[in-house]
Design a protein that fits this description.
By secondary structure, this protein is α/β, with parallel strands linked by helices. The chain contains 16 helices and 9 strands. Strands 5-6-7-8-9 form a 5-stranded mixed β-sheet, sandwiched between helices. A two-stranded parallel ribbon has the order 1-4.
């Protein structure tokens, strides 16, 4: 996103947590570990100094794991002191464990006074970085400001839609990661297209039930941040959530998998938060329950598939 904004002509600064990595990126103009072959424009400022990064910023994009959102937002608040940016945009797809707060709620708590938005949809970094056609949705309650951000973010290859349904966009983005872990488990078990199609459809049903119960509009979940991202994440070779599930389906342990990963699979953490939220709200989410049981209670994937298939007959509904 920093590359996209810099190429769009905006004065852009990329804050990197690790000073050594910031120096390497600034020197090589390429993230060889995560985005090899993607050149970072010379106009993009790269620093590990948060004060420098925040000094003149008007819009802040938070491309961080969900568990890091609060500490980084709090750290930024300390740097900004009483200054409030024009807008805060979350790129994270998750719910905070413990509080069960969405990322926009976390930002609103830590940086009160600034309008908050979420940018979501089927948008793997590997493809955005190579300018492959991508469509996303920007969600926020200030639609006038949202329209300005929409225009600022759009390029010929990066299309941005706008909605005021922040709740629907954030819950869709979170639940799809849990379903993607389940999709990977099915891949690891050697299942084919039938089960993947059923999983996407019934996973969407769970997503809709939870989000609408909390206050989202149903149609949002059939859009880019819901169904669109669900399909992409359940099928993509880039999806870390699907890959974790696949390895579990093949018999590997979660601890061993996570210990060997450099990047975050949000679905592993979302399974805890989504299950807790669904139980607290009385929303039935059998796929989420199965994923949680496999990840955290030692349940066997094949046994959980049999359990899901053996549930009492029902009418199809969302």
């Amino acid at each position: 996103m920093a590359r996209l904004l810099a190429l769009r002509g905006h004065a852009t600064c990329l804050w990197v947590r690790d000073p050594a990595r910031a120096g390497t990126l600034a020197r090589e103009r390429e993230n060889r570990k995560y985005l090899p072959g993607v050149e970072l424009p010379a106009s993009l400022v790269i620093t590990s100094d948060l004060g420098q990064a925040a000094a003149h910023g008007e819009v802040f994009l938070f491309a961080v794991p969900s568990f890091a959102m609060r500490p980084i937002a709090r750290r930024l608040a300390g740097v900004l002191e009483d200054r409030r940016p024009m807008a805060l945009v979350s790129l994270a797809k998750g719910i905070e464990r413990g509080t069960l707060a969405t990322m926009s709620e976390v930002l609103a708590e830590e940086l009160a006074g600034s309008p908050v938005f979420a940018l979501s949809g089927p948008s793997h970094a590997e493809e955005v970085g190579r300018d492959e056609p991508t469509a996303v949705v920007l969600a926020g309650r200030d639609v006038d400001l949202g329209a300005k951000l929409q225009e600022a973010l759009m390029t010929e290859r990066f299309r941005v839609y706008l909605t005021d349904d922040l709740c629907g966009v954030e819950y869709g983005a979170t639940v799809k990661n849990v379903i993607a872990v389940a999709a990977g488990m099915c891949d690891g078990l050697g299942y084919g297209d039938n089960v993947k199609g059923a999983l996407v459809a019934r996973g969407l049903a769970e997503m809709v039930r939870l989000a609408v119960h909390i206050g989202a509009r149903k149609e949002t979940l059939f859009g880019l941040s819901g169904l669109g991202d669900l399909v992409a994440t359940c099928t993509s070779r880039h999806s870390r959530n699907r890959l974790v599930g696949e390895r579990i389906g093949r018999g590997e342990g979660l601890g061993d998998i996570l210990a060997g990963m450099d990047m975050v699979a949000e679905g592993v953490y979302a399974a805890q938060a989504v299950r807790a939220l669904a139980r607290a709200r009385g929303v039935e989410m059998p796929i989420t329950e199965a994923v949680y049981a496999i990840l955290y209670e030692g349940a066997v994937p094949l046994a959980k598939v049999d359990e899901l298939m053996g549930r009492p007959p029902k009418r199809e509904r969302l």
